[in-house]
Specification:
heterodimer, A: about 110 residues, mainly beta, five-stranded mixed sheet, four-stranded antiparallel sheet, about 0% helix, globular, B: about 110 residues, 11 strands
Chain lengths: ~110, ~110
């Protein structure tokens, strides 16, 4: 599984877009990029995943660079409830062993 | 409920005792995972089941840790001769099949005193 690098923390104003970066320069061609988040005292929650193309769902958008060495998770209108630790994970197709790093603590402030 | 259920939610045990942590996955999910999480760190992989068999147990820290899933549904994580360093939140997750999104339970907070 690819090693990922994320900033330790970020702040975002309520109602603004939150853009969370992730570097995964060692990702291989068949590894997906997954994003999960963990709100305090809860289990991690799946957000989105992608391989090459940009993806969007009801929670977020995922923008993957053409060389696949980095990606950005976008929460279009952050709310206070989006305050959480966000994990970017590179994951191979031969298993579903999600390898979590330290993640990014996102603080949404009013 | 329809989510992953873990029991107990909290467990306090004395050093040297044996504990069992239970996970009820989402019905129909063939894959089941155990993780543990220490304060301020991301979840650490322990073991992954596909059906009844352990497909990857490379994360189990030593032979005091063991997990079973005899009928391909409920799983039990067993810890023998607990140590204070085993104190953590133990998370269980399930997914419909390999490489689909994983759904996590709320975890069991284990405290060894």
């Amino acid at each position: 599984d690819a090693k990922t690098t994320q900033p330790p923390s970020m702040d975002c104003a309520e109602g603004r877009a939150a853009n969370l970066p992730c570097n995964h320069s060692t990702i291989s061609g068949n590894e997906y990029v997954y994003w999960y988040r963990q709100i305090h005292s809860q289990g991690p929650q799946y957000i989105i995943h992608g391989l090459k193309n940009n993806e969007t769902n009801e929670m977020a958008s995922l923008i993957i660079t053409e060389d696949r060495k980095s990606s950005t998770l976008i929460l279009p209108h952050a709310t206070l409830r989006d305050t959480a630790v966000y994990y970017c994970i590179g994951n191979g197709r031969d298993g579903n062993k999600l390898v979590f790093g330290a993640g990014t603590i996102l603080r949404v402030k009013s | 409920g329809a989510g992953v259920s873990q029991t107990p939610s909290n467990k306090v045990t004395e050093k040297g005792k044996y504990v069992e942590l239970r996970c009820d996955p989402i019905s129909g999910h063939t894959a089941l995972y155990w993780y543990r999480q220490s304060l301020g760190q991301g979840p650490e992989f322990l073991i992954y089941f596909q059906g009844t068999g352990a497909a990857d147990d490379s994360g189990l820290p030593n032979d005091r840790f063991f997990a079973v899933r005899p009928e391909g549904s409920v799983s039990t994580l067993k810890i023998q001769r607990t140590e204070r360093g085993d104190s953590a939140v133990y998370l269980c997750a399930s997914s419909l099949m390999v490489n689909t999104e994983a759904f996590f339970g709320q975890g069991t907070r284990l405290t060894v005193v």
